[in-house]
Amino acid sequence: MQNMQEVFDQIQEYKKTRKVIGREYRDALSQSNGYEDVKEELKKLREKKKSLESAVQAEMGSRYEELEKAKKEVESLEQMLTDIAMTTLMKGESINLKDKNNVEYEPSYKITFKKIN
Prior knowledge:
mainly alpha; two-stranded antiparallel ribbon; 3 helices; 71% helix
């Protein structure tokens, strides 16, 4: 098994390659016939979509506000669930979750790294 530093170094190299090729790709797209026209049309459609969404949100009023509140509450509760699960695991206990239909859930782990400034 490779060590973490070797894998990290490989990731950094691929990211550098991806960045260079991505820049070349964007340059090629900008020189392609019709690409800029399609981009502009897409921008107009996004603006139209946004205005339609805003109109419907205003029409729904407090019901839409309730939707936004529910989204934020779910996000907050999911973070709390993660914190509780981590604490439980650190105590050496197992985690068992079931929904109302008796479907079992198991934890899924993901570790990411960020730069230290």
